[in-house]
């Protein structure tokens, strides 16, 4: 994984003439992020701090009805898996529509998936 920040762009390709930007987020380099409330299909591009593409996933379709999706970089591609987070996901970066990035601190959901509760921590520093 390269040094320096990554830029994650997530688009909803079915809107308008060229799609609609759902989020642009700048995070420390990671191979996997969670994203809250993605649409039924998204296109994802990940670039380094200089704008060079690291990975891309086009028209990634929803895999199940869940509040979170896991986006994973592998061999220059981005894959999508819609998930109900588990304890293994605690500490993961979570991206929100609009681009805010936080860290997943806690997650709970009902057995029937009709309710869930989660906590995320946000941190920022100004240089």
Walk me through this protein's architecture.
The chain has 127 residues and is mainly beta. The protein is 0% helix and 54% strand. It has no helices and 10 strands. The protein has strands at 6-12, 20-27, 32-36, 41-48, 53-61, 68-74, 77-83, 93-95, 101-109, 116-121. Strands 7-6-3-8-9-10 form a 6-stranded mixed beta sheet, with no helix packed on it. Strands 2-1-4-5 form a 4-stranded antiparallel beta sheet, with no helix packed on it.
Describe how the helices and strands are arranged.
Layout: E1 6-12, E2 20-27, E3 32-36, E4 41-48, E5 53-61, E6 68-74, E7 77-83, E8 93-95, E9 101-109, E10 116-121
Parallel strand pairs: 3-8
Antiparallel strand pairs: 1-2, 1-4, 3-6, 4-5, 6-7, 8-9, 9-10
Concise account of the structure shown:
With 127 residues, this protein is mainly β. It is 0% helix and 54% strand.
Keywords:
single chain, 127 residues, 10 strands, 0% helix
Distance between the termini: 23 Å
- Binned, the helix content reads under 10%
Low-confidence stretches: none
Largest sheet: 6 strands, mixed
Number of helices: 0
